[in-house]
Design brief:
The complex is a heterodimer of chains A (113) and B (114). Chain A is mainly beta. Chain A has no helices and 11 strands. The chains are: A mainly beta (113), B mainly beta (114).
Amino acid sequence: DAGITQSPRYKITETGRQVTLMCHQTWSHSYMFWYRQDLGHGLRLIYYSAAADITDKGEVPDGYVVSRSKTENFPLTLESATRSQTSVYFCASSFSQVDYGYTFGSGTRLTVV
Amino acid sequence: RKEVEQDPGPFNVPEGATVAFNCTYSNSASQSFFWYRQDCRKEPKLLMSVYSSGNEDGRFTAQLNRASQYISLLIRDSKLSDSATYLCVVNGRWMNTGFQKLVFGTGTRLLVSP
């Protein structure tokens, strides 16, 4: 299917476990982003990528790792999940930095118990 | 000061009403402006871009005031389906890495009642 897809939609994990959230886009967009959204904070940028093998930290990168070996995939890994990482995670992509907005995936709702 | 500020609302309006939201931004060099809509528990979706001369898309009108650094969204003839959170989005300052990103406001909630 064309577009940007995230998996899983819902995930419950235990504190201390490693968990990976997947993001796949079919547009060959150069730019990809990971956000978390929490009540009272809005969307906060975790990591972004300008192209394959080029990634950089956003506002709240601690505890997260990303990779981008292929243009279409941008997985986000929580190395050792904590309860404070319970959140809704959105992946987004764009073919330009800011000119045309971002398109978001449908999100992953992660609960860390 | 936050880069993008919005009144969180909620704005409660009856069907058919006209409602307006404002948003202020701090980066005087911003060039890209958008309004996004986010339904409960869903992803944000681009509603419309905001152009310098103002622009309209059906019942929605967006305006930009560079001098006062705010953008606005006007919704005419509100529908029940307009109930959502509206996010103001502006490009932020250049980062040390030479990258520029969009900054999202925390949103204004609109509730349209019958």
